[in-house]
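Practice problem: predict the structure.
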Amino acid sequence: MPTRIILADDHVLVRQGVKSLLEREGFQVVAEVSDGQDLIKMGAKLTPEVAVVDISMPVLNGLDAVRELHKVSPKTRPILLTRHDEDQYVTEALRAGVKGYVLKHQASNDLVHAIHQVCRGGIYLSPSISRAVVDAYLSKTEISADPLSARERQVVQLIGEGKSTREVATLLGISVKTAESHRNRLMQKLDIHETASLVRYAIRRGLVQP
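Answer:
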């Protein structure tokens, strides 16, 4: 049976290109989604062998989606397909349980190799990824941790996307009071006191696109 794969990227043209590439290689694309929440839902329903995920997606970013995907479909091996090659993204991806990290401009060469590698139980990183980052992770060198919880990162992302507190509450299925509480707590943690600075933080962290 062919390896079953979910594609998660909010750009339709990217998904179409990746799907064509994978189907030519004999893989089966069982679902396409455009945000992290839908990835979790479809992952739980279909339990595919591999999920190919972009980092920058609306509603829930790829890294937090991968963390949640592991809970609902622990046998799914996540591969990030992204334009981000900065050290912090690679390190956070490894911490989140990502098994492959492929840069979009190298996708045609690297993605198929990555899928084969992770299906054999290995880890695949695009060759241009900094070796120092991998060494630091493997040696458990302490790298500054994100001060925010997963829920707080979701709130930051949604605020960065321009959502109001009421819209945040609706999207996350929580009360307005709880959403406001998350917002106040994360602003205290980050020592940020206005929405504009919170948006800049979300952009800096790669949670939203500028």
